[in-house]
Amino acid sequence: MILDAFNLKGKTAIVTGAARGLGQGMAVGLAEAGADIVGVDVISPLDDTRARIESLGRRFVDVKADLSGLDDIPNILETAATFGGADILVNNAGIIRRHPAHEFPLADWDAVINVNLRTLFFLSQAFGKARIEEGKAGKIINVCSMLSFSGGILVAPYTASKSAVAGITRLLGNEWAGHGINVNGIAPGYMATDNTAPLRKDPTREKEILSRVPMDRWGTPEDLQGAVVFLASSASDYITGTIIRVDGGWLTR
Questions:
Q1: pLDDT over 90 for what percent of the chain?
Q2: Which residue in 60, 83, 127, 158 is the catalytic one?
Q3: Residue extents of the structural domains in the chain
């Protein structure tokens, strides 16, 4: 039966940025499909995420990690090994800084690039290397952005990093397809998260944004659950290097 292809029972997923927002929503969605979850975030413990996942009868462990650097990557994978190793990696953690391009501070540029791109690649590298050496298939889902396709304003390193994440998704999808590792992306639109709080508090900007969203609403973490479960499951085994846009129609307007 086709619905069996979406079942993640017996799988373990690493989800970065799992404390709240999109990461928490995707972690819960994967758990609802049967996966055990390794939740990674700069804060710990992840009590709310744990409660939601364990209420579904799934196992959960959190890892406190500073994803502005690479030092915590081995610990993330070692923690996943306590569940038998990670089958799925969801690279969701990301930050944003807003300044005019001609005044963008170097420190803020580096902070965004380090979390959104540098650590994402090297965590993917470590995950992929382990799966290749073990001769096991795997799934990587990178959280891209609408700005992987368009320019935006006031968020130069965010646009740069998310454009690069789209490229890395395609590259790894090509390189690792022969090893049974599918690498795909999800590009959320304007979602009701901490990152968009300043926009949602500005009546003018909110009106401008929603006027371009055919569905006339902000997205929610739950809106990503179907896409992430699909890309993590065997239902997507012949899909790689692809980015699914979950944006309420923004990019087709």
A1: 93
A2: 158
A3: 2-191+221-252
158 is catalytic: yes
For helices 21-32 and 47-54, give the axis angle rounded to 10 degrees: 20
| Better-predicted residue by pLDDT, 195 or 126 | 126
Q: How many CB atoms lie within 10 A of CB 73?
A: 19
The string of pLDDT tens digits covering residues 216-248 is 999 999 999 999 999 999 999 999 999 999 999
Homologous superfamily in CATH for domain 2-191+221-252: NAD(P)-binding Rossmann-like Domain (3.40.50.720)
Mean pLDDT to the nearest integer, 45-54: 97
Task: Quote the CA–CA distance of 62 and 65 in Å, as a whole number.
Answer: 9
> Burial level of 148, CB count in 10 A (0-12/13-18/19+)?
buried
